[in-house]
Amino acid sequence: MRIIAGEYRGRQINAPDSSRPTLDRVRENLFNILGPSIRGARVLDLFGGSGALGIEAISRGATADICDIDSGAIKMIRANLSLLKATAGVYHIDYKRYLENTSNTYDYIFVDPPYESEYIVDILNIVKDRGLLNSGGVIVYEHSSDKKVNIDVEGYFVKDTRKYGHATLTFIKEDL
Fold first, then answer.
1. How far is Cα 72 from Cα 56, in angstroms, rounded to an integer?
2. CA nearest 113: which of 155, 62, 69, 153?
3. Which helix (H) or strand (E) holds 162?
């Protein structure tokens, strides 16, 4: 797996066997959509896996927090950051405990849980209740293209959806 653009462009990172990393072309399209707004942004990579989404954001000038419950993933994230000499907040914690306890707010929250999970509504409710998404911020939810997603949470709307083979990115914003 490689970093697509920015300071670490072309550099290779590794993924733990336990993860399903976001494909290079999906990451490339995601960050092309986000464009220059990523520079200076504060990002949360909620289900870190390899840390690829957070590291790609860092490479493009963002600051990032990356969390994962899996100890193997956390070791891989730290190794990838060390390899690149990059820095990020790395948290070995369940997504729910992280969201319920962080005092940070974010411009972008990347939600890439295991495809069979049903966490998105819970995540949206916690983010809204705790005010974790900055004004104008976006939650990017990666899920299986086979899965019908129902984002029926008061205060949010789906801004855009992009399908890339088996993966779909759903861009969610707060109703202001």
1. 20
2. 69
3. strand 156-164
- Which residue's entry shows tokens 């369940």? 94
Each residue's pLDDT, cut to its tens digit, for the chain (176 residues) gives 889 999 999 898 887 666 666 777 899 999 999 999 999 999 999 999 999 999 999 999 999 999 999 999 999 999 999 999 999 999 999 999 999 999 999 999 999 988 778 899 999 999 999 999 999 999 999 998 987 777 888 999 999 999 999 899 999 999 87
Q: Domains of the chain (ranges plus CATH)?
A: 24-174 (3.40.50.150)
Give me the residue label for tokens 């860092």: 58
The pTM (predicted TM-score) of the whole model is: 0.94
Q: Are 73 and 18 in contact (CB under 8 A)?
A: yes
Using CA of residue 4, residue 7, residue 35, residue 156, what is the dihedral sign? positive
Q: Which residues contact 42 (CB under 8 A, 6 or more apart)?
A: 62, 63, 64, 65, 104, 105, 106, 107, 108, 134
Phi, psi of 43 (to 5 degrees): -120, 145
